[in-house]
Amino acid sequence: MSGPRFARQLIPVLAAALLLVGCTVRIGSSPGSGAGTGAGTPSSGGAASETRQQDEQDAIDVVDAFWQRHFAELSRAPYDPPRVAGGYVGEDGPPCGGTPSPPGNAFYCPAGDFLAWDEQLMEAGYRQIGDAWVYVVIAHEWGHAVQARLRATQVSVAAELQADCMAGATLQGAVDDGLVRLEPGDTDELATALVAVADEYPWADPSSHGDARERTDAFSAGASGGLRACV
């Protein structure tokens, strides 16, 4: 994925691709990367790692730009973006309310109002799936930050699926707004990423996040119906 420019309607192609893919991404299947201070910080992974971290920064910029434009559809409050703590490795990430950062994970911390992720999580998905992986992860966690900014009545009891829905609305909306361009293969990557996050993966335990069909349905609902379909 890159920008600007756009290709309209991600979901019809994505839905077809979902019928063809299935995978499990495992942290241990790829080498770890060095710690980052946020996306764009070079690490020990060399040029490939720097490219991934640039894609992380691009994803941050795209997702934030989308919410700058569209947060008013959900709230009359001014939009105040969360802080992006960015990458860490293992247990060396920022704590959340006194709880250590989880290895192999990505999370939004309400107490500190920040997003963070294990770079090994990003590296595993990036190498096996592609750059669409970082967009899915970051858009999902940003969805949790948006939930924290909404009225309680707007936040679903199925908070993880709602964040998936918001991720779908964000990425399709960013395409429609010309903030990001879909490149050849991106829809397949997105489909694979959605299946992967619902498989046996530390970041997305199906018992709390939903199974593959629930998660892809939620993402597709947001992509086809926009933010209003998510609240």
UniProtKB/TrEMBL annotation:
The UniProt annotation puts the region (Disordered) at 31-55
Read off the PROSITE patterns from this record.
PROKAR_LIPOPROTEIN (PS51257)
Signal peptide, first to last residue:
none
Q: Provide the alphabetized UniProt keywords.
A: Membrane, Transmembrane, Transmembrane helix
Where does the record place Low complexity bias? Answer: 40-49
Under InterPro entries, the record lists:
Uncharacterised_pept_Zn_put
- State if Nucleotidyltransferase is listed as a keyword: no
A Pfam family matched by this chain, by name? Zn_peptidase
The record gives the membrane topology as: Single-pass membrane protein
The compartments listed are:
Membrane
Q: Which SUPFAM superfamilies match?
A: Metalloproteases ('zincins'), catalytic domain
Name of the protein in its database record: Neutral zinc metallopeptidase
Native species: Pseudonocardia humida
Its ancestry begins with: Bacteria, Bacillati, Actinomycetota, Actinomycetes, Pseudonocardiales
